[in-house]
Structures are given as structure tokens and as C-alpha cells.
Amino acid sequence: MLTAGSAGSAGHFWSRGVLLVMVGWSGCWLPWNFLTAAGTEVRQVSIEEAAEWLVTVLKEEPEDIRDNVDGKQMGRPLAVDSAVRWMTSFESSRSKYGPATPFVVASEDRFLSHCCVRFGETQLYPDEVVSALGVVYTIPQERQKGWAKACVRAATDFALKQPGIKRVVLLVADRNLEARKFYESLGFTPSSHTLLNNDIPMTFWTAQLGIGNEPES
Ligand SMILES: CC(C)(COP(=O)(O)OP(=O)(O)OC[C@H]1O[C@@H](n2cnc3c(N)ncnc32)[C@H](O)[C@@H]1OP(=O)(O)O)[C@@H](O)C(=O)NCCC(=O)NCCS
């Protein structure tokens, strides 16, 4: 269940004067790209904008945090053009995805949080096109204010509205306890599929349609 509160119920919470009115995923969502009272909004941005920002902010992070952001691939201090290439297409031994659609939480021109979704194929779910969530990141001074939750909800809502998409998958480093708590709070569940990504043990997590996650039509 991808909701802030209990199944199908309406929840309301305040974050630093910003009212995020949330209605359960199984009910209906207010549009995610509305401008909040504090001038903070969730919006879709270009790959170039996202990559430029991520390369800058990730440089400031300790290596173990950077390693968590997409299993070292985006987390390595990249040049902007190689980050753009990496976000434009992705292929591994078991998955092949098209370009990322990036979402940010922005306070005017300042980005606070980011995530993206891609569409493609993975051997884990061979007979379907899946969406993959990635590069989930909030700048350190803005953590635990609900920004990543708002961003991931917008991205998964967008993904699950695409024709034929029934599932959102993502890879989470097993040692990343904060991230695991975060995805649990959004209704993602760990699968039995694991791998080593640059020596980091990781598990695939999923959120599916049909278990109360239907986005607003
Ligand atoms: C994981 C991360 C993206 C969370 O971002 P955030 O904006 O702080 O997350 P939110 O404030 O939206 O958190 C929402 C929920 O996640 C959980 N959560 C977030 N941070 C947590 C922490 N440090 N410890 C425990 N739970 C946490 C909470 O359950 C919280 O729900 P609640 O406050 O409604 O109870 C952020 O810590 C981050 O950027 N970490 C470094 C990069 C990374 O590890 N990315 C994930 C890669 S898979």
C-alpha cells in the first residue's frame, strides 16, 4: 500500500508549514504537481537538469552515502555528460531500460529531493514491461521532512498510469537501513531477488498494482 496512513484512509500532515494533503493511494490523489503554501512543489524536470544537480550535490556526500545512490553508478562523482548518458539509457546483464523521467521537490529554483523512473525489461519479470525507480536522494539538511516520500509518490503514480505498467521495481542496498524503512513506509516490499552490485549486496523491492496502489485515473 503506497499510502501515508492506513489502507484507503485520508491522512493529513504538516511539514514546516507546508500542508501536504494526502488521500490514500487506493482512493484518489490530489495532483502531485500543485504549488504548496510554502512555494514548494513536486515537478518533472529534464535529465540534463537532474544530472547537473545530482553531480553537484553528490560530490559533497561521504562515499558510503554516494554508494547507496543507485549502487555506486550515479553515486560516483560523475561528469555531467556521463551522468546524462547513464540516465538516458541503462543496460545490465539482467535489465534494459530506456530514458529516466526525473522528478524533484523544488523550493522555487532550489531542488531538495530527487528520484526518477525508467521503463523497460528485466529478467526478474520476463513477460512484462516494468518501471524502475532510481536515484532517490534528498539533500542532507532537508531529510525527514517528507520530501522523498512526496517525490517517490509522484514518480510511482506517473509510472503506474502508463499503459501496461503493473509494477515498480528498485534495488536497495541491504545495509541501507534508512532507505529500507523509507520504502517500507511507502508500501514497497523486498523480493527474494538479490545481487552484488560493485560488491554491495542489494535486494530488489517492488510495489504492485492490484494491492491497493491504483493511481488516480
Ligand atoms: C533515504 C532518503 C532518500 C529519504 O529521504 P527523506 O526526504 O529524508 O525521506 P522522507 O522524509 O520522505 O521519509 C519518509 C519516511 O521514510 C522513513 N525514513 C526516512 N529517513 C529515515 C531514517 N533516517 N531513519 C528511519 N526512517 C526513515 C520514515 O518512515 C519516514 O516516514 P514518516 O516520517 O512518515 O514516519 C534519504 O535519507 C537519502 O537521500 N539518503 C541518502 C541516499 C539514499 O540512501 N538513497 C536511497 C537509495 S535506494
Automatic annotation (TrEMBL):
Pfam families: Acetyltransf_1 (PF00583)
Highest rank taxon of the organism: Eukaryota
Domain N-acetyltransferase: 55-207
InterPro entries in UniProt: Acyl_CoA_acyltransferase, GNAT_dom
Molecular functions per Gene Ontology: acyltransferase activity, transferring groups other than amino-acyl groups
Protein name, UniProt field: N-acetyltransferase domain-containing protein
Organism: Cladocopium goreaui
